[in-house]
């Protein structure tokens, strides 16, 4: 495993991080993971060098945090860098579903959700806390709420996720942010300018969607193989012309994977963590075997020639990405 400093925090985080969305067993991706298996998966990932675990208050109505909390209690709090997210709010008298969701991060939301998250995670502090979406709360107000948590000792640092460029510029101007979490992969580079902005300000970047919702794992090779869940609405590569082009790109990734005797997913993850400005690629892991395979992506690196080949193939199929 390789490690990098997370922005200005001084914390060394693994270049492969564990994303735990599916461990929440929410309905969006029809996840139905056994909690005991998820705990084994987390333990295995840590045993193989992963020290960053990312979750969120909203994943499965807090269920992901509960699973992570049980695993961390067994592993040891000092063995992991723990982060969760705040800012998707459901009124206490509302049902926990998309219809009642709103995006805000005022002091009431922050102070309520931090206590719930700490309890579920079985810890009295977070290494860093992330605002899930900017939402409707003025950035100055959410910044003040997060800084209050730092002063209370409940979080050591904080960052943001899913901010647009103007929102990110604003929050960086206030001088507090340690990290930014965008969607980013070989197939999705729309957030590149924001990543460059973070690099100029020494802000860590944690990518999600690093294998484009699973399609860069090589698991799905025909439309008949595609999962019947909601990921097609999040990732456009599961349909139409984009799917066909992705299948062509996978042929090049197959060549590279064969040369390294590794799964295709490791090629896709390696591409991400070898891009300038990226600190960690967050990757979902559903089993101990998958945890070992994904963590092992950090055991080797793509050559300059392989990076050029992958980029040239991508650009020929999809066009040159904007910088």
Report on this model:
There is one protein chain. The chain is an alpha/beta fold and 323 residues long. It is 41% helix and 14% strand. It is built from eleven helices and twelve strands. Strands 3-4-5-8-9-10-11-12 form an eight-stranded parallel beta barrel, surrounded by six helices. The mean pLDDT is 92.
Number of strands: 12
Indicate the structural class: alpha/beta
The helical percent reads: 40-55%
Specify the biggest β-sheet. Answer: 8 strands, parallel, barrel
Write down the overall mean pLDDT. Answer: 92
pLDDT < 50 runs, ≥5 residues: none
Radius of gyration: 19 Å
Which strands sit side by side, in order, in the main sheet?
3-4-5-8-9-10-11-12
| Oligomer description | single chain
GO molecular function, one term: oxidoreductase activity
GO cellular component, one term: cytosol
Pfam families: Aldo_ket_red (PF00248)
InterPro entries: AKR_Detox_Biosynth, NAD(P)_OxRdtase_dom_sf, NADP_OxRdtase_dom
């Amino acid at each position: 495993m390789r490690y990098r400093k997370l922005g200005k925090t001084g914390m060394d985080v693994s270049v492969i991080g564990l994303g735990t969305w599916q461990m929440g067993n929410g309905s969006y991706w029809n996840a139905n993971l056994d909690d005991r298996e998820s705990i084994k998966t987390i333990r295995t990932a840590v045993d193989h060098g992963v020290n960053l675990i990312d979750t969120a208050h909203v994943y499965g109505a807090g269920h992901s945090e509960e699973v992570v909390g049980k695993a961390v209690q067994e592993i040891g709090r000092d063995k992991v860098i723990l982060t969760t997210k705040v800012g998707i709010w459901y009124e206490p008298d509302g049902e926990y579903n998309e219809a009642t969701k709103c995006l805000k991060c005022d002091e009431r939301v922050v102070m309520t959700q931090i206590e719930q998250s700490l309890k579920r995670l079985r810890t009295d502090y977070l290494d860093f806390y992330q605002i899930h979406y900017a939402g409707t709360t003025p950035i100055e107000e959410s910044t003040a709420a997060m800084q209050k948590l730092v002063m209370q000792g409940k979080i050591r640092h904080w960052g943001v996720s899913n901010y647009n460029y103007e929102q990110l510029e604003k929050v960086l101007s206030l001088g507090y942010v340690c990290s930014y979490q965008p969607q980013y992969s070989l197939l999705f580079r729309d957030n590149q300018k924001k990543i460059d902005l973070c690099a100029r300000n020494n802000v860590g970047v944690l990518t999600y969607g690093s294998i484009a919702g699973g399609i860069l794992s090589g698991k799905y090779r025909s439309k008949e193989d595609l999962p019947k869940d909601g990921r097609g609405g999040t990732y456009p590569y599961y349909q139409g012309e984009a799917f066909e082009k992705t299948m062509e790109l996978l042929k090049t990734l197959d060549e590279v994977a064969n040369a390294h005797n590794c799964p295709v997913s490791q090629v896709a993850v390696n591409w991400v963590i070898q891009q300038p400005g990226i600190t960690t690629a967050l990757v979902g892991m559903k089993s101990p075997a998958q945890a070992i395979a994904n963590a092992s992506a950090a055991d080797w690196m793509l050559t300059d020639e392989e990076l050029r080949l992958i980029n040239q193939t991508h650009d020929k199929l999809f066009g040159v990405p904007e910088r």
